[in-house]
């Protein structure tokens, strides 16, 4: 492990993995995003389901870095646009490109940028300590909610107050818990690498 890599970079940078392993890591995060979408709980008062996707998006961005984390989420969206059933199951929202135009489209379209932001901060060492890891995760989550609530308010004609009430407020408690849990993983991985 060289000194510069020890100061900056992601887990992949420090491990100095091959291009093939980097591609495999991107595919792995894409598949995890698909799986997380299937863990979906529809809520009766909102078209936005509860899923584990944001946690995977943020962890993937932090582990892979800005560019590769964003690539994993772009690939996820491309699979969905192509019509593969990768988006959360919904009795009212279609699979395919039309999902991006629906009420949850802003959340989905935010994933590449959220992964980029979290990965950018991780590359600067935010994923090394729990407190800064939490900050990196919350920065990415803020991107998800900003895009999602704005799209819900404007694109779905819900109005801002209704969009906040149905697309943000109900998700805050669970997402805080998810972020606090997710933020423990990367510092633990760095600690493990440091002891080897």
Description:
It is built from 10 helices and 2 strands. The protein is mainly α. The protein has a single domain, classed as Arp2/3 complex 21 kDa subunit ARPC3 (Orthogonal Bundle), CATH 1.10.1760. A two-stranded antiparallel ribbon has the order 1-2. A hairpin with an 8-residue loop joins strand 1 (40-41) and strand 2 (50-51). Residues 1-6 have low confidence and may be disordered.
Core attributes:
196 residues, mainly alpha, Arp2/3 complex 21 kDa subunit ARPC3, two-stranded antiparallel ribbon, disordered N terminus
Please state the structural category: mainly alpha
Assembly level: single chain
Distance between the termini: 11 Å
- The pLDDT mean sits at 89
Reported for the largest beta sheet, the result is: 2 strands, antiparallel
Percentage of residues in DSSP E strands: under 5%
Number of helical elements: 10
Question: What is the number of strand segments?
Answer: 2
Helix % is over 70%
- Return the CATH class: Mainly Alpha
Shape: globular
Low-pLDDT ranges? 1-6
The total domain count is: 1
The CATH architecture assignment turns out to be Orthogonal Bundle
Q: Strand order of the main beta sheet, please?
A: 1-2
Summary?
The chain is mostly helical and 196 residues long. The protein has ten helices and two strands.
Which helices and strands occur, and which strands form pairs?
Layout: H1 3-7, H2 11-15, H3 19-38, E1 40-41, E2 50-51, H4 53-64, H5 66-81, H6 98-101, H7 105-123, H8 130-154, H9 160-167, H10 172-195
Helix pairs in contact: 3-4, 3-5, 4-5, 4-7, 4-8, 4-10, 5-7, 7-8, 8-9, 8-10
């Amino acid at each position: 492990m060289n000194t510069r890599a020890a100061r900056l970079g992601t887990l992949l940078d420090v491990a100095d993995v091959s291009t093939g392993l980097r591609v495999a890591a991107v595919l792995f995060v894409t598949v995890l995003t698909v799986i997380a979408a299937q863990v979906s709980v529809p809520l009766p008062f909102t078209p936005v389901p509860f899923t584990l996707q944001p946690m995977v998006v943020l962890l993937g961005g932090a582990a892979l870095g800005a560019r590769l984390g964003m690539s994993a989420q772009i690939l996820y969206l491309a699979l969905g646009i192509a019509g593969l059933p990768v988006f959360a199951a919904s009795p009212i929202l279609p699979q395919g490109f039309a999902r991006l135009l629906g009420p949850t489209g802003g959340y989905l379209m935010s994933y590449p940028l959220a992964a980029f932001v979290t990965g950018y901060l991780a590359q600067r060492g935010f994923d090394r300590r729990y407190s800064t890891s939490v900050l990196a995760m919350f920065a990415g989550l803020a991107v998800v909610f900003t895009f999602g609530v704005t799209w819900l308010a404007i694109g779905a004609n819900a109005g801002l107050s209704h969009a906040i009430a149905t697309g943000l407020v109900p998700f805050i408690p669970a997402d805080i818990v998810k972020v606090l849990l997710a933020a423990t993983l990367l510092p633990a991985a760095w600690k493990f690498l440091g002891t080897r």
